[in-house]
Amino acid sequence: MRLKAVPVPTKPETVVRLANQPVLACRFAGPFGHWIGDLVAPLVAGIKGSELKAVQTGPGFECRNRNRSTTGKLSAHAQGLAIDIAGFDLANGTTLRIKPEANTAPDPALAALRTAACGWFTTILGPGSDEAHHDHLHVDIEQHGSSDRYRICQ
C-alpha cells in the first residue's frame, strides 16, 4: 500500500502528508497511520503550538538485510513492516528533525513521541541506539520471539 496522507481525527478534514509516499504492508500501514493521526499530530500541535503538516520518511518497503549488511537477517523493511522517519514538517514552516543538533538537549516533543511509540510498535531505534540509526527514527512491527509483547525501545 502506498501511503500518501493520513487523517487527523481531532481535526476533521485535516490530513498529514507523507511526501515520499512510502510503500508499506497493509498490516503496518494501519497502525503507522493511526500513530501519526491519533498521537503524533495532536502531541506535536500541543507541544510546538503548530499543526503537523507532513512526515519525512524513507521509502518503507526496501528489500535488504538489517542495517544494509551484506549478510544476516532480512530487515523488517524487506517485508514492508518498517519505516524510517527523518523529521516532521510543521505548518509554521519549521521542521522537527530526528537527527540531534550538536550541543543541544533533546527536543521534548521528540522524546515524548519516541517513548510513546513503544506502545504502538515492537521496535523503535533512533539516535543513541546505534550508529545505523544516528539520524532517523526506525519503527516496525516485526515480532521478536514468541510474543508480540516484547519490545525493543532504544
Textual characterization of the structure:
The protein is of the alpha+beta class. The chain has one domain: Muramoyl-pentapeptide Carboxypeptidase, domain 2, CATH 3.30.1380. It has helices at about 25-50, 110-115; strands at about 5, 15, 50-55, 80-90, 95, 125, 135-140, 150-154. The strands form 2 sheets. Strands 3, 4, 5, 6, 7 and 8 form a 6-stranded mixed beta sheet that branches. The protein has a two-stranded antiparallel ribbon with strand order 1-2. The relative contact order is 0.16.
By CATH, the topology is Muramoyl-pentapeptide Carboxypeptidase, domain 2
Total E-strand runs: 8
Under the CATH scheme, the architecture is 2-Layer Sandwich
Order of helices and strands: EEHEEEHEEE
Radius of gyration: 15 Å
Principal-axis shape: globular
Computed structural class:
alpha+beta
Tell me the domain tally: 1
- The residue fraction in helices comes out at 10-25%
CATH top-level class: Alpha Beta
What ranges have pLDDT less than 50 throughout 5 or more consecutive residues? none
Biggest sheet features: 6 strands, mixed
Strand content: 15-25%
How many helices does DSSP assign? 2
Straight-line distance between termini: 28 Å
Mean pLDDT: 91
List keywords for this structure.
alpha+beta; Muramoyl-pentapeptide Carboxypeptidase, domain 2; 6-stranded mixed β-sheet; two-stranded antiparallel sheet; 8 strands
Write the layout of secondary structure elements.
Elements: E1 5-7, E2 15-17, H1 26-48, E3 52-57, E4 82-90, E5 95-97, H2 108-117, E6 123-125, E7 137-140, E8 152-153
Parallel strand pairs: 6-8
Antiparallel strand pairs: 1-2, 3-4, 4-5, 4-7, 6-7
Helix pairs in contact: 1-2
